[in-house]
Amino acid sequence: MASKIKYNPSFDFLSDKELNLLQKLCDSIKNFVSDSKKINHISYRTRDAHATSYSTLKGTLSVNNNFEETDIFTTKELDCIIRISNAHMKIVSQKRSIPAYGFSVKIFDDKTTFANFPLVNFPLFPVNNVSRFLKLFIAINRFFSGNFLQKCRNLAQIFKSFILISPSFFRPSFIYEVLKFLKKSRNFILSFDYHSIGVYRLGNHLVKLKLVPKKVTTKSNQESIDNSIEKYIENNDYELDLFVQYCYNLKKQPVNQLDKTWKKSEFISIGTIKINGTIDKNDKSVEQMSFNPFENIQELQPVGRIQKLRNDAYKTSYKIRKNNKL
Questions:
Q1: Please, are residues 267 and 244 in contact by the beta-carbon 8 Å criterion?
Q2: Phi then psi for 250, rounded to 5 degrees?
Q3: Which InterPro entries match (predicted)?
Q4: Domain definitions of the chain by residue range
Q5: C-beta neighbour count of 75 within 10 angstroms
Q6: Which fold has domain 9-118+185-322?
Q7: How far is Cα of residue 101 from the mean position of the Cα atoms in its chain?
Q8: Backbone phi, then psi, for 57, in 5-degree steps?
Q9: Of 39, 116, 215, 323, most Cβ neighbours within 10 A?
Q10: From first to last of its 326 residues, what are the pLDDT tens digits of the chain?
Q11: From CA 70, how far away is CA 73, in angstroms rounded?
């Protein structure tokens, strides 16, 4: 059997130029989140991504007794909170939104965070170049929070950034996943698989994560997304299998090429998440929760250059949202 690739800090390396751009991104996030009440016409500050919250679920992760990483998952029953969202930076209409969904899972024991896994319903990410990614999202943040002249200037930067990253959209693996996604884009939100996109440590190894729902109808009704979730949870059992995919070969399972699917690596089940209820979606303390994956235990930390950007970005957003009265 092939040996698993071990974690190396070099996977996370950012240049001085990239670190300077990261600081500019954090400044743009601070401005956007500070203005998000005005931008969204609401009474509280929102995240700078996945601002629209559809539902918050509570449940339990039951770890398989035969899962090999017994030194990490020493507790076999862990509590979960799951925030289901839309990826857009602004709050969007439930009827006209693009079905780009987030499924952020907080796993904890006795109120101590074990892991945060921000997952999404599309398995690839089209940007590998850190500088281009940062310039794009700096421009998007500034576009939404700026005045008219700033909007015009940053719109030009957004178009330029999209042109530079566009070759990734035409990779065969990316096109294949897009076609698969389009076939099920109108499916019920709870029927999607949800993916980590980026890589995580599992002990000293490298993995990707995937959540797969069990026996969920794909048919979506005409109700709003939040009401359809709530009714489904009230009337049905909702369970999801949590899988990992190990890295054995950096060419077949690349860490910093997020626009490629991992091949020649089977999915292995960690355990099952069973949902046992919903949490009041109007509870602002829940909405202010952090799902920063860098709050994970050391053995489950994020890995990779794009992943590395999340820590400062999440912390900046959380700090400004927490100071809602300022």
A1: yes
A2: -70, -15
A3: Catalase_sf
A4: 9-118+185-322
A5: 12
A6: Catalase HpII,  Chain A, domain 1 (2.40.180)
A7: 9
A8: -110, 155
A9: 116
A10: 689 999 999 999 999 999 999 999 999 999 999 999 999 999 889 999 999 999 999 999 999 988 888 889 888 999 999 999 999 999 988 776 789 999 999 999 887 899 999 999 999 998 999 999 999 999 999 999 888 888 888 899 899 988 988 888 888 888 999 999 999 989 999 999 999 989 999 999 999 999 999 988 888 776 789 999 999 999 999 999 999 999 999 999 999 999 999 999 999 999 999 999 999 877 777 778 899 999 999 999 999 999 999 999 999 999 999 886 54
A11: 5
Q: Could you tell me the two tokens for 291? A: 């799902």
The two tokens of residue 251 are 């060419």
> For residue 267, what are its two tokens?
């999915």
